[in-house]
């Protein structure tokens, strides 16, 4: 695999890409804003956390970008490359592991003049990790119970003690099993789910402070900082993007 183009635009506006049959593959990961592609005349819209994977010889076009933060790779492959078969659109594909790999790409790109080989290696890891994340995971009954409890109590303050009581195990045991099976803590998982729900409530047009209150945040500033940490933009910026 050979990387031929890498960009992290960091919110800088970009011009439209006219329809063109590309001779390379493209992987674009959207952190914030909205990206509209046309791939073989099929419209694909990316929002925060989404990924598009475009195969070689596809006819690709893209609308002009404003207020959008994304990373894009263009690369060639050979018959020797054993790459996973990925769908064109991967919703919520930027998992924590992917973010860490992308951070490494930024560091290498910023510090080196000839970074193609190292970035190609990380890109291969990113592609494989995306494929792994697409495989349905088999969780234990305990982890499933914890996930269900969180889903049913997003509009409340969720504590480890409450989770343990609902699952009939100690908070420490619940935390250990959940982290081993999901790769993240119960607290971080609950916050991630609350932030996803926050997006849904903002889309519905609820006042931002009301959204924070409904999700168990008594301090709006803390809610706003948490939202921005997860999505790289504040609730207010997200609302403006929708408008």
Q: Any descriptors?
A:
four-stranded antiparallel sheet; Arc Repressor Mutant, subunit A; 243 residues; 9 helices; Jelly Rolls; 46% helix; 20% strand; five-stranded antiparallel sheet
Protein architecture, described:
Helix content is 46%, strand content 20%. It folds into 2 domains: 2-134, Sandwich (Jelly Rolls), CATH 2.60.120.280; 141-242, Arc Repressor Mutant, subunit A (Orthogonal Bundle). The strands form 2 sheets. Strands 1-8-3-6-9 form a 5-stranded antiparallel sheet, covered by helices on one side. The model has no long low-confidence stretch (mean pLDDT 90). It starts with a strand and ends with a helix. The longest helix has 19 residues, at 116-134. It is of the alpha+beta class and 243 residues long. It contains 9 helices and 9 strands. Helix 1 (96-111) packs antiparallel against helix 2 (116-134), helix 3 (141-152) crosses helix 4 and helix 4 (160-167) packs across helix 5.
Report the CATH C-level class of the largest domain. Mainly Beta
Can you name the CATH architecture of the largest domain?
A: Sandwich
Kindly report the spatial arrangement of strands forming the biggest sheet. Answer: 1-8-3-6-9
* Outline type: globular
Low-confidence spans: none
Number of helices: 9
How much is the average pLDDT?
90
Calculate Rg over CA atoms. 20 Å
> How many structural domains?
2
- What is the subunit arrangement here? single chain
């Amino acid at each position: 695999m050979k990387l031929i183009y890498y960009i992290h635009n960091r919110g800088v506006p970009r011009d439209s890409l006219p329809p063109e049959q590309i001779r390379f593959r493209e992987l674009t990961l959207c952190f914030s804003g909205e990206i509209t592609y046309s791939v073989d005349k099929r419209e694909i819209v990316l929002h925060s956390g989404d990924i598009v994977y475009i195969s070689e010889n596809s006819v690709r076009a893209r609308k002009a970008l404003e207020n959008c933060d994304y990373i894009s790779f263009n690369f060639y492959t050979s018959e020797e490359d054993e790459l996973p078969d990925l769908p064109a659109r991967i919703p919520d594909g930027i998992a924590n592991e992917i973010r860490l790999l992308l951070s490494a790409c930024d560091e290498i790109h910023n510090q080196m003049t000839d970074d193609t080989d190292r970035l190609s290696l990380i890109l291969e890891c990113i592609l494989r990790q995306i494929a792994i994340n697409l495989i349905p995971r088999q969780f234990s009954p305990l982890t499933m119970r914890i996930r269900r409890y969180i889903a049913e109590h997003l509009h409340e303050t969720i504590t480890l003690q409450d989770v343990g009581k609902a699952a009939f195990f100690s908070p420490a045991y619940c935390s250990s099993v959940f982290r081993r099976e999901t790769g993240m803590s119960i607290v971080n998982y609950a916050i991630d789910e609350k932030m996803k729900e926050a997006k849904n409530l903002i889309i519905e047009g609820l006042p931002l402070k009301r959204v924070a209150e409904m999700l168990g945040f008594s301090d709006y500033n803390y809610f706003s900082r948490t939202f921005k940490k997860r999505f790289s933009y504040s609730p207010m910026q997200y609302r403006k993007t929708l408008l």
